[in-house]
Design goal:
The chain is α+β, with helices and mostly antiparallel strands. Helices cover about 20% and strands about 50% of the residues. It is globular. It starts with a helix and ends with a strand.
Length: about 140
């Protein structure tokens, strides 16, 4: 019986943590200047052509979570030039998030006052592997 109580307590804490994370995620998150890191070949956002390393780039990105139901959400990922619709989910741990936009995926971590989003996009003309740390506006 003790094991059952411990399991139920753990499940309750996990659900409560996920609910708090869900409420916290809604809103607009923006990158801090010079906190873009990674590499890319090409860009569909009009941010240069050819190979580029992004360490310290001053590009500004926003991630806006518009609507949530449970741990699922609809969002928008925007550069200074283009926005793309995205869908995502907060994993059961209440901190890890998975997001898919029109042509790639994000793997993220939600903290108390930050959101790290790492983006992967494979392709012949455009390839991207980058991470951004965002703060809530």
């Amino acid at each position: 019986m003790t094991m059952l109580r411990m399991a139920l307590a753990g499940a309750t804490m996990l659900v409560a943590g996920s609910a708090m994370a869900s409420e916290h995620l809604v809103g607009t998150w923006t990158t801090a200047e010079s906190d873009n890191r990674g590499a890319r070949v090409g860009s569909e956002h009009g941010l240069g052509e050819g190979d580029a390393l992004m360490a310290g780039s001053d590009e500004v990105w926003t991630f806006t979570v518009e609507e949530m139901q449970g741990n699922g959400f609809h969002a928008e990922w925007c550069s200074e030039n283009v926005c793309e619709d995205a869908v995502g989910v907060i994993r059961a741990d209440g901190e890890s998030i998975l997001v898919a936009d029109e042509d790639g995926i994000f793997i993220g971590t939600l903290g108390e006052d930050m959101l790290e989003l790492c983006y992967l996009e494979p392709g012949a003309d455009v390839r991207i592997a980058d991470c951004h740390t965002l703060s809530k506006e």
